[in-house]
Structure formats: structure tokens, C-alpha cells
Amino acid sequence: QVQLVESxxxxxxxxxxxxxxxxxxxxxxxxxxTAWYRQMPGRERELVAQLGRDGHxxxxxxxxxxxxISRDSSKNTLDLQMKNLKSDDSAxxxxxxxxxxxxxxxxxxxx
Length: 111
What we know:
Layout: E1 3-7, E2 10-13, E3 18-25, E4 34-39, E5 46-51, E6 57-59, E7 67-72, E8 77-82, E9 91-97, E10 100-101, E11 105-110
Parallel strand pairs: 2-11
Antiparallel strand pairs: 1-3, 3-8, 4-5, 4-9, 5-6, 7-8, 9-10, 9-11
């Protein structure tokens, strides 16, 4: 059974930092196209950052220079380091290892 479990969400003030982590079981993340998505109330889920099997990364324009996606093969985790957070970053963040999804972790940024 495949499980993706996110952690690290919470409440932070604008300008602060958070690190999200996603632990995978049942699959090895290095063999999957992985990503972090987020969903704000009333809006569609959107791609935040993607890490391919070849290590290539892509980021949404809104988070470039502030967020970093990474993978720890030994721990089988996918992480998202978020810095200089803004209120617009408030959302539920989802770990994705195509086609599997985590349950999400909420990030709330107060201005």
C-alpha cells in the first residue's frame, strides 16, 4: 500500500520560514516524478515545485527564489523548504508522487 504523509505545516508570520516533509512508504521516491502542490480555498490545486527522476527542478513563478524542493533518498522523503513566506502562500500543501497524493498539510501565513 502506497502512503505519502506530509508534515511541517503550521502558522507563521510573513517573512518566516517553514520546511515541509513528505515520507513515502510502499514506493521509492527516486523512481517517481515528484512534486509539491498547494490549494487555496475556492481555487484549483496548483503546482508549486517539481523534482524529476533526473533531479531536474521546476518552480512556479510565484515561489522562485524562495522555495526549494529536495529529496532524501536514504530517508525516502520529499521536502519543501519555504523562506520569506507571504500571506499568499497560505494553503494546504500536498505531496505528489505521480499518481499518488498525500493528505495535505496546512500552511497559514499571517501578515
